Amino acid sequence: MSDQQGKKDFITARVLRFDPATDDEPHYETYEVPKYEVGRQTVSKVLEYIFENLDPSISYYRTCDRGICNGCVAMINGKAQLLCMTESPDEVTIEPVPHHRVIRDLIVVPEEEDRPRRRVVERSAKSKYL
User: Fold this and answer.
1) Is residue 3 part of a domain?
2) The CATH number of the domain where 117 resides is what?
């Protein structure tokens, strides 16, 4: 704890991980991410920190970062929300949206009618930018 009011100086992020090529079952991994001193820290920024500093094997969508394309939708503490528009609470659980085939971690294949016609940047250890 960093200050007298008992506020944490980090975010605890619990991410549901699953790689169908290597894992039998999905499992959670927990990460400690430093909080921003100033400004808004979205769940997308939390995942970006994890990818760049803690675990480059994590896979997630990083799209427009402005809430326009709806490409980064995931379950955030049990509610479907955009990673790029949702401010991260001190404790956050991040899961792929349900009823979609998981390619890896938070990357899913959407239903055919949900398939957007846009360029998507995939963040993963296999290819940083697709």
Assistant:
1) no
2) 3.10.20.30
